[in-house]
Amino acid sequence: MPPAPLSRSGKSRRTTDSPISYFIQKALETPGLISFAAGLVDEGSLPVDEVGAAVAQIVADPLAGRATLQYGSTQGLPELREQVLQLVCDADGVRPSDVSLTVNDVCITTGSQQLLYLLGEALFDPGDIVITEAPSYFVFHSLLQSHGAKVLTVPLDEHGMKMDALEALLERLRRSGELARVKVIYTVDYFQNPTGLTLAVDRRAKLVELARRYSTDHRIIVLEDAAYRELRFTGADLPSVKRFDPTNEFVVYTSTFSKPCAPGLKTGYALMPPDLMAPLLHLKGSHDFGSANLSQHIASRLIASGAYAKHAEHLRNVYRKKRDLMVQALESEFSDFPAARWTVPAGGFYVWLTFDGIDTGPNGPLVQAALETGVLYVPGEFGHVFDGEESVPNNECRLCFGVATEEQIPEGIRRLRKACAAISTGKREKVKVGV
């Protein structure tokens, strides 16, 4: 007799596997496949020597070593929180007091993904509304589904989230009586995942102004995901959205050491309003009593020694070259393909490729044709939210140049062009990969 069925929570039933999991699995199980899918970092640039030196310094002092291997605090290592505060304020050209920030407003998390989840636990009830860009970071969409939140979207143009469209949406929600359900406006404002676009300076100030203006019976939080900020390789840095929140009331700024340093450290951080910190730490304490103490001490040593800043500069050169290789390959392979256009990011990992008349969706012909030619991309469809009324675009691709080698990038674009030609002509030829 089979056992009685397991009774699962509503949150468990709402939580599903991320759509990217299939593509990561395909990349892992297919030797020779060139993957532009997973947003992984450049393998050869990981700071093995720098991390090794930091660990050696820590364990060379038994007292420091024991402190490092002991439990830490839920909020995070005080030295690292102070360094993070200075790192962000220096980038914005302000003193912490100029934007009402202290070390008590900084929390260290297990990657920025934990902060996204904890913030949802602290703020969302099922049916609450989160406004995101369209397209946006699809892993965050999966997280919102788990919390039972409803996602509404605002379109992008070449300058990021369109503020006139955001204002129109907020006004529509106010008139319909749904504004009370709006809890968060989410933006990946530097070299956005998935499009590579960056939010313009004037729109950053407007975003905070709109959150403030429409916070009539409760505060609407702007969640600024700045994970790629330190990977700018063209032009000057832009002030954060947080910079336009001088009273530290409306913006949560979150970032990570994964992209500009090493994802294996699994260490992120956030700066947030003080009345949000306490409830978030209560929840974090239930999760882990604090993120990995050893990783925090390593990150702190890297910053203090100057190795972190030096490595981030090295990465900017690495990714600039990779971006250039991908754009050059697109120009070469798709110059006679008028249906193709793409973004040229000023930083980060991603190029957004759009076609006219080619179905790039997960069930469309290009995914399979690309696999047959030995290349993998992420369907842009994943970055959109289907609201049951309007269909989402199915002619977009996210191409990540993070983990692909310099040799693989032009070859991968050549294979993608071959796949496009194959479905255009109806002549598909499977190539043998992994030899």
From TrEMBL:
The chain positions of domain Aminotransferase class I/classII large read: 40-416
**Keyword tags:** Aminotransferase, Pyridoxal phosphate, Transferase
Q: Does the keyword Transferase apply?
A: yes
**UniProt cofactor(s):** pyridoxal 5'-phosphate
Query: What Pfam family is a match for this entry?
Result: Aminotran_1_2
* Record bears the keyword Transferase: yes
From the Swiss-Prot or TrEMBL record, what is one GO molecular function term? transaminase activity
Q: What is this protein called?
A: PLP-dependent aminotransferase family protein
